[in-house]
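Exercise 7. Predict the structure of Opacity protein from Wenxinia marina DSM 24838.
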Amino acid sequence: MLRTIALAASFGALPLCASAELSFSLYGGLQSSPHSGLTVEGDRVVPDTDVTAGWEGRSTDTPPYYGLRATWWANDRLGFGLDVNHTKVYADDETLAETGFDRLEFSDGLNIVTANAYYRWPGALGQLTPYVGGGVGVAIPHVELTSNGSETFEYQMTGPAVAAIAGVEYDVSDSVSVFAEYKGTYSMNEAELEDGGTLETDIVTNAVNVGVSFSF
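Solution. The predicted structure, encoded as tokens:
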């Protein structure tokens, strides 16, 4: 009896295994970020700050905005994967003037790393395949704050993050496809400052991405 059940389960899994595929994606695009609250509890060097910060994306400045993605498609519609997004923000001139900071940015990336799930609809738009996705993870930004001779310049794991994605994909061949999508992220960041104190800010990013995927 047990052998019969095992055989039935194995045959039932065959369609799933036969349609499974692994894909690797690289994307870039234009990314922006709305204003957000910024709180700095400083020490004797960095002043306390509680303002609404303005952020600039500067997507094409070095280092540029980009992302990497690995996805395992369990079947034609459902996929799971890991996404590493080098999104970034810079405090604008008004924010620097208001806070007195010489520099405040996450220009080597907010670096949002999420575990995602995706759902797609093959053939729903002819040769275009629409898809949506979302995930949870962490922010690992390169924190850069300079004020009164104090400098924080290091990678830190600063808090949880979530991502949401919606786009369309076009198959160039059996193994290569291109895609365009909207991607939004939200991260809660609490960073430690070099000479004591903390920086806290929740950052939203909005991006329009274009990319290429290779499937195996």
